Amino acid sequence: MLYAILCQDRPGAADVRAANRAEHLAYLESFGDKVFCAGPTLTEDGAGMTGSLLVVDFEDRAEAERFCADDPYARAGLFEQVTIRPWRRVLPRG
Asked: Is residue 94 predicted with pLDDT exceeding 90?
């Protein structure tokens, strides 16, 4: 099942994000095609990062929760809030 994961950074935590970015990206890449898409959410001017949006494919919510808990960003305390929701792709068709 696909899960949409929306993570909101703690205010003033840009240094935590920067310090853990390489490890975070390596972690995501280790899941191969289970990561449908991923990237940062941005400030209105596009200059800063405010969180993360990911769509991942896991067997169940518990697996999605483990994925989130083990993310280097989460372990470093970057996120103020994490929301996990089941998601269905409608478009593009394919």
From this structure: no
The full set of domain ranges for the chain reads 2-87
- B/e letters for 3-35, b = 16+ CB within 10 Å, e = fewer, are bbbebebeeebeebbeebeeebeebbeeeeeeb
Token pair in block for residue 4: 């949409």
Q: Backbone phi, then psi, for 33, in 5-degree steps? A: -80, 5
pLDDT in tens, 19-36: 999 999 999 999 999 999
DSSP helix, strand, coil percent of the chain (3-state; round to 5): 35, 35, 30
* Superfamily name and number for 2-87: Dimeric alpha+beta barrel (3.30.70.1060)
Helices then strands (H, E): number in the chain?
Answer: 3, 4
Which of 19, 15, 11, 35 minimizes the C-alpha distance to 72?
19
